[in-house]
């Protein structure tokens, strides 16, 4: 499912470029909001957004900024209410409409989200229009409408050929259809425009392995496990490729790592069941599960240790924490 990463960054950038025409203080607050958001100062973003709503309650910007933060924190119903407040003040505000579409989509109301994305398309221009097409592409993909998804991703790329997320969306569609040459080309384009994205490195590495380009696949997958030491699929595929190349020692190491990571999932389930009545500990374990699925090592361990600190009497948590201590946080040097 779509992770909303690049698209949200694009939306925030466009929102920051909106300059209120009548009040210097509103303009200054909006600039400070953008700076605080990019710096990761979420508490400051919330304070500034509240201030903006109080100083200029008739304007939509404060409501949209606050909604963007609450959406990121998983408070979807509150974000939705704020976005309707923004649209009541500015019905033609495309950023608010687009963000509302995302919030509604995250709540599982996919058909309603399609309608909102189409409304955003009628209001949006330039890069914001590309972001709306990108959102529609992911939504059609989730609905199983592959042809419509492909059209939407291609429209987004027509407007901005550097949208790595749209290239990756096409890669997923082509790969599902078994169109591996086109999938490989799209995967390379995605990584070209977002070389820091480990998920794109993984996708390209797996496609290279599938298409028999072993040497390049090994190099790519080694980069993946260096960045995400507990990436199960990368370890498993890397182990198989290295064994096939005759490097039994390193190949076996990666296969053992893959098996050790695979065994963590049932331990996580046991711990979740044992602390089910303790919301904060359970939330931390669910975070640990998401981090583990993406291959993060230190972050997964930290989430589990925090849950264990809250529920030290849990034997399942003790077992899980103990197992994690014995696993490496970094890739073994070759």
TrEMBL record:
Gene3D superfamilies: Tetratricopeptide repeat domain. Keywords: Repeat, TPR repeat. This is Tetratricopeptide repeat protein. Coiled coil: none annotated. The keyword Repeat applies. SMART domains: TPR. It comes from Rhodothermus marinus. PROSITE patterns: TPR (PS50005). TPR repeats lie at residues 130-163, 164-197. Pfam families: TPR_19, TPR_8.
């Amino acid at each position: 499912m779509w992770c909303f990463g690049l698209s949200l960054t694009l939306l925030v950038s466009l929102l920051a470029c909106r300059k209120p025409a009548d009040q210097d203080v509103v303009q200054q607050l909006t600039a400070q909001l953008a700076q605080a958001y990019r710096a990761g100062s979420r508490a400051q973003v919330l304070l500034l957004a509240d201030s903006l709503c109080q100083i200029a309650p008739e304007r939509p910007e404060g409501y949209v900024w606050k909604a963007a933060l609450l959406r990121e924190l998983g408070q979807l119903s509150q974000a939705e209410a704020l976005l309707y407040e923004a649209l009541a003040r500015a019905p033609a505000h495309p950023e608010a409409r687009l963000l509302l579409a995302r919030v509604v989509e995250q709540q599982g109301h996919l058909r309603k989200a399609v309608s909102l994305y189409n409304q955003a398309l009628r209001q949006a221009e330039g890069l914001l229009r590309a972001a709306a097409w990108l959102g529609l592409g992911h939504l059609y993909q989730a609905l199983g409408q592959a042809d419509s998804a492909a059209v939407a991703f291609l429209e987004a790329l027509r407007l901005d050929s550097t949208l790595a997320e749209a290239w990756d969306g096409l890669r997923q569609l082509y790969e599902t259809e078994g169109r591996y040459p086109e999938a490989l080309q799209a995967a390379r384009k995605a990584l070209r425009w977002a070389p820091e994205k480990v998920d794109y490195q993984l996708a390209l590495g797996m496609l290279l392995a599938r298409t028999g380009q072993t040497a390049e696949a090994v190099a790519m997958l080694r980069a993946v496990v260096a960045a995400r030491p507990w990436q199960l699929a990368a370890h498993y595929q890397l182990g198989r490729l290295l064994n096939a190349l005759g490097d039994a020692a390193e190949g076996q190491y990666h296969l053992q790592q893959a098996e050790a990571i695979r065994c963590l999932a049932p331990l996580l389930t046991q711990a979740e069941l044992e602390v089910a009545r303790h919301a904060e500990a359970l939330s931390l374990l669910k975070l640990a599960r998401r981090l583990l699925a993406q291959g993060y090592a230190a972050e997964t361990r930290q989430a589990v240790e925090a849950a264990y600190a809250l529920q030290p009497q849990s034997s399942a948590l003790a077992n899980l924490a103990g197992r994690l201590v014995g696993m490496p946080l970094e890739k073994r040097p070759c």
